[in-house]
Design a protein that fits this description.
Chain lengths: ~325, ~325
DNA sequence: GCGAGGGATGAATACGTATACACTTCACAC
DNA sequence: GTGTGAAGTGTATACGTATTCATCCCTCGC
């Protein structure tokens, strides 16, 4: 195990200066074609790869993007991460992944200053997180994906949660439902808030009231959806439909319905949000509002690259449509 | 947006040399307590963080680990990744994540030489992948997690797949099953091979034969399990139990059973492998052989750190037990 | 009073690359 | 024949840190 060869070693081998080797590496046009060919041959023979650290130190660019996520085990987040990996990779960028649940805030603060990455993708914006303010304040190019923050001067790419939720509500109302359950998240961010408000707006526009007892506020996990469904469905006169703000909660609700013996969709319709891969499994067969993960990530990475290119460009907030995907958990017309 | 302060700037501010600042940063004992205190105060006031690149270039250590994975959307892999993130973070290490499906092999080869990371965690060993040979040959400390490669001189931490599979087979046989289906992966690695062989061994030891028509070889996705179940269960005399080598396939099998109207466990028992979080959801309630994700990752990272410390230490291959977790997909004694 | 020695600090250098600058060579126009 | 410019190349330097080496001061023992 010997130290890998440097550009200087190779320069000696090729009979040129280190500067010329570097020029070849950076595709500098000011180099004689013959020289270039000779150097390239030597590089190839030696199986040489430039030291990324030294290069980054000199150029100030690491070709690496920092990604902050939470709960990778949540199906939607896993899909988001997978897509981020795909898009970054196809852009020739590496990804450093941080989990804001595991990493203490001081670590995060350090990272922001270390110039270890060219930019950040933040996917877990919450009101109470100082991460985003810190990231923007640090001056490092930053894009918010999937979850935005109102009034933050920062590029953002989000689904149109409000409209998607509205469509879901409208769909239930049009099908004749009037006794509707809403399992919502204790609001910590834009996303779940809009998924809540949009739904309520659709019902209000149609003149359908939501009984306060039909609204359950829960946490993120599957088990919380399960508990909420049990609570709603074990009442004497349970709601005929339940809408919730994430697929994960919807899966919990389906499980809870199963537990209390309620049939879906005969006894109760269920609608989720995200349209994760699991939603299409027969075990769930879940009607869900789709989040355009692919477009969100494509657009977001594009935005980030443009901002790295030109830090002074005006911020953009891009909203992408979230269409309702109908499956068996609501597939039948209501009698 | 101004350039972040350097140790030299801070040295000037504190009235000392850059060398002294560096000594404070590295906890070098050869510095006067008073000086140290003064420097620390200045560092704190300036909110200074050392440039990670420069430090890495000098020390040759990046405090970053490269992780290679596939299919993050697969529940088990997501759990593995989550755990890796947790353990690395608590060790003060960063993680660069590569997806070997997205990243072309040449990228991988470059990465191996760039000294961008102190070591590698490989989680997706397959026979045909050159990645592992390359990684080991590159001399960078490397540990294989979850999937091993026979005869590769490299630290490895794997579950005892053979024994886990054996126990699953034994459990079915003991319950009186004699007509048993096996949904297995087209073998591309150690893991699925042992999960297959161990199971067959248990049946053989008990004198139970597996009909060739009861063995289905499939690919990784959920849909493949679904198709396999349909194939097995729509026969005139379907098997009374199906064992498969991953939870993901088991979920597909449960869905397929549902599709053809077979009741679990009344008509058919189902056993998976990995014991992912989803297995405990009521929708599946799946009996599954547990992979000790937490221990695997803890042990693996520990091994990796020790190898980074001392590259000459002898290679270790550590095998951890995989206990069978019994749930509703098999919970009842067979009549 | 003087040398030895330890403790604390600064000056200088190296990590491996990219690039500004200087220099040489050659072709060409006057 | 001299001057001009372009094309290639080499020299030197900088990125920000860690670390070796040299220096200085102070204490202590004689």
């Amino acid at each position: 195990m010997t130290r890998p060869p440097t550009s200087r070693d190779l320069a000696r081998l090729a009979g040129v200066s280190q500067a010329t080797v570097s020029r070849v590496l950076t595709n500098n046009p000011k180099v004689n074609p013959e020289t270039r060919a000779r150097v390239l041959q030597v590089l190839k023979d030696a199986n040489y790869t430039p030291n990324a650290l030294a290069r980054a130190m000199k150029t100030g660019r690491t070709d690496t993007i920092g990604v902050f996520m939470t709960r990778v085990t949540s199906p939607f987040h896993a899909e988001l991460l997978d897509e981020i990996g795909r898009v970054l990779s196809s852009s020739g960028l590496h990804m450093i992944l941080w989990n804001i649940e595991h990493d203490p805030e001081e670590t995060v603060a350090e990272v922001l200053q270390q110039r270890l990455v060219d930019g950040f993708l933040l996917t877990s914006a919450t009101y109470d997180s100082r991460l985003h303010t810190m990231a923007v304040a640090s001056g490092t190019p930053t894009v918010l994906l999937h979850r935005g923050i109102d009034g933050l001067d920062c590029d953002q790419v989000v689904g149109d949660n409000w409209q998607g939720a509205y469509d879901a509500g409208r769909y239930l109302v049009d099908a004749g439902h009037t006794d509707i359950g809403l399992v919502t998240l204790t609001h910590t961010g834009n996303t779940s808030r809009d998924r809540d408000l949009g739904f309520r707006a659709a019902l209000a526009d149609a003149g359908v009231k939501i009984k306060p007892s039909n609204v359950v506020s829960v946490g993120v996990p599957h088990a919380d959806g399960h508990a909420a469904a049990k609570k709603l469905l074990s009442r004497k006169k349970p709601p005929t439909a339940i809408y919730t703000v994430t697929d994960l909660l919807a899966f919990g609700i389906l499980d809870g319905a199963r537990a209390v013996g309620a049939r879906v969709p005969d006894d109760v319709w269920v609608i989720g949000f995200d349209n994760t891969e699991l939603a299409a499994w027969e075990a769930f067969d879940l009607t869900s509002v789709e989040q355009p993960v692919h477009s969100i990530v494509e657009t977001g990475v594009d935005l980030l690259r443009r901002r790295i290119e030109d830090p002074e460009r005006p911020t953009e907030i891009i909203t992408l449509p979230c269409p309702l995907v109908i499956r068996g958990s609501t597939a039948h017309r209501r009698v």
